[in-house]
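Supplementary notes for students who missed Thursday's class. We covered one full example, reproduced here. Read the sequence, then the structure, then the short commentary at the end.
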Amino acid sequence: MRIKNLSFVQFGFRLLWKYLQRDKRRTLLALSSQKSVWVETGTYVGHTTALLSEANKFIFSIEPIARFVKKARKKLAAQDNVYILKGTSESELRKILSHISSNSGLLEMEFGTDWNLNFFLDGHNSGLGTFRGELISPIEMELAIIAEFSLTLPINYICIDDWRLFGDSEIVEGYPLKSSIYQYFPSAFYETSILSDIFIAKKNS
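Structure (token representation):
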């Protein structure tokens, strides 16, 4: 009986996960454009990276675990608009943004002044063998780095995955409070929403 109950629970969890992932895909596609560049932290094996590569111009993705980098690069070998970097967001995010900034003139020449930059921040430990560094969630450091480029790059969307893991009133296993995240997005400059367990901040025009 215990085995049957466990199987039922596992089935229910997998079904819920399947629908959640489907909704996440729909949400990200709705934010996509052929004039968009995305930066993703936490490639894992490249599922989200592959989705974004189909609907956007360029994808830069960061993954610290070598075996996941290898799997993702193999999975996306045919995609010439994807760049997967091995490292942590702490070490690689600023490098990527500096690279994009130094090539912003070329992007404008090719796509016009309305090209934009988006982020999918998923570089936190969430089980399944994902990376756990000194910080379980480096999200605040990632947001601080992004803020350094907020005046020089055409940032459009900043998306934070697994919003349910962030605490409402107390810090949960190294994830900052939701209120701490909102402080990075003052209402005068951003519109925020929650869709499919993703926190979405859209920069005002």
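Commentary. The first strand starts at residue 36 and ends at 41. The chain has one domain: 2-203. If anything here is unclear, bring it to office hours.
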